[in-house]
Amino acid sequence: MLLLALVTPPSDARDLYTYVAPDGTAVLTDSPRHAGFELWWSETEPGRTLPNGVPMPRLDRIANLDAYDDAFLFAAAANGLPAELIKAVAVAESRMNPAAVSPAGAQGLMQIIPTTARALGLTDPFDGEQSIKAGATYLARQVAAFGSYTLAIAAYNAGPTAVRRYGGVPPYEETTTYVARVLGLYAHFRDTRPVSR
Question: Which of 93, 129, 173, 174 is catalytic?
Fold first, then answer.
């Protein structure tokens, strides 16, 4: 068990579980394989949900949660979007980590893939303000194309082609979960923690 005390929890949103095998080996995983695993680290607040019923993420563990609020306000004004919606996307995408890189190659605070970054004129995906500006521009284009925040958020995650193909939110578990999380975070920020200077 001493090993577990030395492990730093990951910055991405995962619950971690522990199990001590009969031979004394300690196992730490985000995919428990049987009922013997116990929750060790959770990225959601027990008993709390976002306004739409999605588990409340541990926002208190995001050290720079409000650090980019001026950039969100600027991007919101430039694109006709609520700053809280853009911030919700950033939290869902990277947990506000400007250095984040996904396994698929998406980069920065708003997790923009390199081809989209080039099309948006994003020169440094790891600059938080540039990433927010580009991500907000892309999100605004999806709102204009699909006419709703829900479909725009789905397009941000799965791509506009998938949204068109399915005539709505694609039935991918990752996308449906993502859309619910972003909409819940948006409502939470709008109603209880508005972006301000």
Answer: 93
Distance of alpha carbon 115 from alpha carbon 138, whole angstroms: 12
Q: At what angle do helices 173-192 and 149-158 cross, to 10 degrees?
A: 130
- Give, for 83, the enclosing helix (H) or strand (E): helix 83-94
10 Å CB burial of residue 46 (0-12, 13-18, 19+) is exposed
Q: Check whether 19 has a pLDDT greater than 80.
A: no
pLDDT in tens, 40-85: 666 888 889 999 999 999 898 898 999 999 999 999 999 999 999 9
Distance in angstroms (rounded) separating the CA atoms of residues 128 and 30: 28
180, 54 Cβ separation under 8 angstroms: yes
- Helical pair 173-192 and 83-94, crossing angle rounded to 10 deg: 130
C-alpha–C-alpha distance, residues 182 and 179, integer Å:
5
Distance between CA atoms of 25 and 97, rounded to whole angstroms?
A: 33
Q: Is 45 a catalytic residue?
A: no
* Domains along the chain with CATH numbers: 2-42 (no CATH), 60-192 (1.10.530.10)
Tell me the DSSP string of 125-154.
TTSHHHHHHHHHHHHHHHHHHHSSHHHHHH
Q: Which residue has the tokens 């919700």?
A: 88
